[in-house]
């Protein structure tokens, strides 16, 4: 599609102003987009020397093309707009020599510069042209544009005028004839003009940027220092205040309105003046009015799926009482502000989110868009940071729960994705304090990670992020859903992996060296030889000889770290806990190599311990957890085995003849003490998944096989975690290149959207078997049910409820029961045909029967009287 150019009319034309009416010099806005930067054009069609010309190269090239093509009357939009130019008001400023002498007295410039200005004024009077003219239509309001006479023609002065710009916000002067910090005759004349016409500009002013003391007079520099608290972006404390305000008041909704996501995609549809909507300060008591909008930049860009929209002006406001700053951060315009210079359309943000869900990096999406639009986009890292900023401000709950299994699944599957790593030098990780017990505040940690993502939007080039989160043993938390975890204090005892000495009573459960040795066989011979050389070992011999040497050397911690970093990368991968439906409930980003300790930390942080845990090293997990919780022994009976480890039971299990029924997995039985709320049982078992149940050397582990339990065998997919990793490993090529905090934040976000999509698919499947008018809601355990949800439930009141157990839906008030059972709401539904009626339903049926019986009696009575009357009158 070609771009349709609108005609220049009275309603739509470029702003323009007369500069020199005698010679036909005008100032015209360069473009329709803000800010209105002026250029000079000449249109003199009277007298002997007529001349029509625009000073822009692009317009001149277009005019040449039109002339070559036979289009003689061609005019650019700047010249066409002169037809609607206002008349010259004749109020030109006549610069006085007394004003110039006063400026010399106040040391704005020296006598030599004064003499040059007077000489230039005389030359302008001789040529009958105005020396200086203020351009009134140009913006923003903090900039003053002065058209100054220049007799010599040059590349920056084609029509005998140059434009000097004074920025009252930055206290800078700009002239096209030289650099910003160099003085020239044009700047001196512009200062002369403004000193005479707007003396207030040369007194106490506010600035938002650092000012060079050599650039302005000493008196003015001191005045600027009094307002240094209004520098934007502010200092670290000021940024923290803004970030917390954005997190609290400017979060994006989870479900963005579709009209904002798909409606705004083209440049003409976006606002070009982005001003914060706040009027009063939210930090101060009382209604403290904020300042007028102060411009940050007029060259911001909006990145969309179809290209880049340029010429966007962004503003901020400041509170004069507490110096709190407010910037534009509104999603209702269909855009997301990252750093006031780059903004993303919400449409593009959603595209990037979906691309990541399909294992496509942000950099690849940007490369595709650049090649398609044939335009230069911002750097890919900046766009990635902008997307993370968008996700950080989105009000996601990160529930990490399954709509079928609820907040507390009966059965969980655990595994490690060892290829999902981030770079981290172990030597830079400080040891944890001596009194640290592994308790970490999960909310505080993830809030700090979120603040780091948001804080990137306030950092200029080279400035260090004050909120950066570095891996540490005492401040590094997993993520567990808010309804699943016991409290906001969770466990992370990775610091214990560094202990070299062990008690004689502690069984040897650290098998990471053994697993690391197994992984050595997956390396090429050259890589194994290189490892041997780095560890100071003999590099001669077969692969087996080299591996055996490395196995022995791994008892040394330094050699272990070298081998681990070669095989696993820097960090220890991420451990997950999933339900049989494949929904991720917990994720832990390991700093060191995996061990049962990592999964024990997750399970012990849960509010309700699962009844069945499936893991590839079940024996080590059960022993480790029972050792840490010796008073309660979570894995019991039989240390998490399905039966007592007698010789007979072990033999029957090996022959697949042993069957141990766990009926409470299907139907809740009478509740035990400290039982699981969905099963009523306090038994907890640690079982092997099907791929690893034959890898163990302990014969007693035959009692940890899934096939022993009829309720699990064939019904539970023990490879849900592996299947998840099979999909997520496609993201390693970009996730593993991120910083530790960026890796963890983006991985948590990707898993959250993955869980949401899986739950949505399950909900859609359930809706196919119920009536469209039926309401699907959740019971007190987070399980999807059919009916009215409970308003408040404690653990003693909660009961299981699924879609086929409608009579067990908890009804908190009689009013809601009456509404549910009103005749207008009663419909036949085969989902409840085979279930007994509840007490409320019985009452309703009795009421209907009584009403029907009363109506029948009345009708029969009336019929009897009518019949009797007819008999009597015969």
From TrEMBL:
InterPro entries: HMGXB3, HMGXB3_CxC4, SAP_dom
Pfam families reported in the protein's UniProt record: CxC4
Membrane-spanning intervals of the chain: 842-868
Keywords (A to Z) from UniProt: Membrane, Transmembrane, Transmembrane helix
Domain SAP: 520-554
PANTHER family on file: HMG DOMAIN-CONTAINING PROTEIN 3 (PTHR17609), SAP DOMAIN-CONTAINING PROTEIN (PTHR17609:SF3)
Protein's recorded name: LOW QUALITY PROTEIN: uncharacterized protein LOC109071643
